[in-house]
Structure formats: C-alpha cells, structure tokens
Specification:
This protein is mainly α. The protein is built from three helices and no strands.
C-alpha cells in the first residue's frame, strides 16, 4: 500500500507539473491572442482612416466638378446684376474675367493637345527607330554567324593542311633517315621495295 501511495504521490506531482506547463502555455497563447487582437484593431483603425481619406478625396473631386457649374452660375448672376446701371461696370468686368479664364483654359487645353500629338509622333518615330535598330542588329548577327561558320571551315581546312604537311615531313624525314642508314639512295629504295 505504501508503494502504491508513493507512486500515486509521484503521479500527482507529475500531473501538477503538467498542469503548470499547460497553464504557462495557455498564458503565452492568451498573450499572443491579445497581440493579434491589438494588431487587428490597429488594422481596422488604419482601414477606417484610409476610408475617410478616400471619402475626403471623393468629396474634393465632386467640389472641383461643381466649380464649372458654379462659374456658369456666377456668369448668370453677373448678367442679372448688370440690369442695374450702377452695377453694369462690375458685371462687365466679371464677365470679361470669366471669358478670359475660359479663353486661357481653352488655350491651355489646345496646347496640351498639341503636346500630346507631338509626343505621339515622337513615340511612333522611336518605335520605328527601335524596329530599324533591331533589324540592323539581326543583320549583323547573321553576318557574324556566317563569318564564324566560314572561320570554322577555314580552321578545319588549315588543320587538314597542317596534318598533311606533318605527314609529308614525317615521310621525308623517314626517307632521309633511310638514306643515311642504308648506304645511299639505292639501298634505301631496295629496302622500301
């Protein structure tokens, strides 16, 4: 019974250690979860901030679109005010300003159109030049390949000539050695025969 009790105490201490380990792991996981929740909250705040910025930009774009309409309304109001003799000069000045601003805007748009056409022309010229240069490059590459093939053929031919020349030199050397060793030309010829 005492042995079983000691074993039960040992199992109990092991269980307590395991519980402590699991509690520590649970604490770590809860901390990681809290960090993830905080990161999620920050992400949501950034998303909301971005949404608000986009809304602000959208409202600014609408306001700018409405400026043209507002200018037209201002012109109409200026024409109505011109009915009065005292305000006639003021209205004429405003109308002139609006017309001048419209004229300047039209000139700017025309200049932008001209610059765009010029840019398109330059782009097409550049494309033609690129095509021309690519074609020239392809031609030079073909010439290079042709010359490399020709060079390889000439190198093989030269090696053949070198081989033939080496064989003939070896044969001449053999005949010269035979002539020296066989007492003259007659003996060497008999030996060869």
């Amino acid at each position: 019974i005492e042995g079983e009790m000691a074993q039960a105490d040992l199992s109990g201490s092991q269980l307590e250690e395991k519980i402590a380990q699991l509690s520590a792991r649970k604490g770590e996981q809860e901390e990681a979860l809290a960090q993830a929740d905080e990161a999620l909250a920050q992400g949501a705040a950034r998303q909301e901030e971005t949404r608000l910025r986009l809304e602000k930009v959208r409202l600014q774009a609408q306001a700018r679109r409405g400026q043209g309409e507002q200018l037209r309304r201002s012109m109409a109001q200026a024409e109505l005010e011109s009915a009065s003799a005292a305000l006639m000069e003021d209205a004429a000045g405003r109308i002139d300003q609006f017309q001048e601003s419209f004229r300047l805007r039209d000139e700017t748009l025309a200049q932008i159109d001209r610059e765009q056409e010029t840019a398109k022309g330059l782009a097409s010229q550049l494309e033609e030049r690129i095509t021309s240069l690519q074609n020239a490059r392809a031609g030079y590459e073909m010439k290079l390949q042709s010359r490399q093939h020709r060079q390889a053929a000439l190198l093989q031919e030269q090696q053949g000539y070198d081989s033939q020349g080496g064989q003939r030199l070896q044969r001449a050397q053999l005949l010269a050695d035979m002539e020296k060793n066989m007492e003259g030309m007659g003996g060497s010829v008999k030996f060869v025969m």
